Amino acid sequence: MRHFGRVVAICSVLWLGCVSSQEFSIPKVKFEYLKPRGFRASIPDVPGIKLFAFHSRINKPFKQFEEGDFAEDVLEPNADGNWVYETTKANVPEGQSIHYWVYVQHEDRPYYATNLKELIRKNPVTTTTTTTTQKPKAVTKTPKEGKTNGKSTSTTTTTTTTTLPPCEPTVTTVNGGRSTCAGKLIFEDTFQSLDLTRWQREVRIPLDTESAEFVSYQATPDNSYVAGGHLFIVPTLLNLDPDFSDERIRTGELILAGCVSPTNNENECRRKAALATILPPVVSAKLNTKGTFRFQYGRVEIRAKLPKGDWIFPQILLQPAENYYGYADLASGMLLVAHILSNEELVTGDGVRIDGHRLRGGPILTNRAKLRMASLRANVLEEHFSDGFHVYGLVWKPDSIALTVDGFQYATIRGKFKDYGTSNNLTQANLWNEANVMSPFDREFYISLGVGVGGVTDFPDGSRTGSLKQPKPWNNTSPKAEYNFYQSRNVWYRTWTEPELKVDYVRVYAL
Prior knowledge:
One of its GO terms (molecular function) is hydrolase activity, hydrolyzing O-glycosyl compounds. By secondary structure, this protein is mostly beta strands. Helix content is about 5%, strand content about 35%. Strands 15, 18, 19, 26, 32, 33, 34 and 38 form an 8-stranded antiparallel β-sheet that branches. It starts with 8 loop residues before the first helix and ends with a strand.
């Protein structure tokens, strides 16, 4: 992985000529070791610093600018005036070494320090680095010993090479068309905490714009939280809330404080139960980066453990940032990075297996029942995809979409979506850009992570689940679909042994 930062075009060609008028040096990197495991690396805030990127490995040197096993782009200093990277995932036994490199954007210029090595000791150690944008040179410092507050400290011997690699051009754009550099990691979250400055929790009741799943998405900490370095998204029954008895679900009202409807439709923010219309019987969560990160073309990698349980499905999606081609009937498209029907065993009425052993991904162009899944591609495993973590990938190029799992590319979908839409009488295809074969996937999209339950599109009518082949308890076209689903909760809820989506990391790279 190459981490380049933002460099003006002339510097990407003649980088030896890009020397700042005032020399800047990366501040000292301070290491602190956490209990029972992990470490903290930090630099003090200096006026002009806009980003601190830290990439590290344990006992494994870097060749150049590969991605670290423990790495993050730190976008702002903390309240104590330090730019801090922290991980509790790393095992750091005394006597081992942390190999690392750092990148600092100071004003509008990138500064690198490479070939760095930290010897792990019981007491915190400070490593000194010296970096400028002038011609690459090596600086070797002799270890010194001294006392600070009566305690011995030491400075490790490091070789610091200052480099300014070229910013190679890329078709990838970020956040409104901003340019970036080829191969650059443009987004990463390893979920050391739930950063609500990067992720927005959706609060709404989904309608038929996507799946009309039988949930309300809420911002409750029980439904989305971080623990042990993983993001958890967990569906729960509404009747577990003491304020919502079964009777109130059938006759009461749900008003969602803080609700935001993409279409200003009040039905996404409140529902009054009456007759066959009930309150959404499941509470879930859905997080997105719509307000903070969106991109066009790139490589997505998400390491996750998918949920298991009847009538559940994970939502690992790319969604259109502006719905440029329209909102109704998914006119602006949607990309599935990873999708399963999480039942342990599920077959169609014709006996075709469609449960959690079958991974699907790719573009969705309409909500029409027969066409919604037609453009998706599948990969089948003997094991259920929820049995362990997998790395789900999507490579979005100007002429194709490739799908991967654990590095294996199982499908490539070429463009010409307008031709497909026209031949299938999709009215939105008339709006798609004829000059771009990827339209409607020729605009910026954002990341969505969530868990859906039920709904009127994902699970085909006539499906049968479990070893007893019990029929799906609702029909997608029935006005009583949600009510019939809820009435059979004593059957399907017993299968929810692992209903949560667990996400280890999300990474997006420029092409």
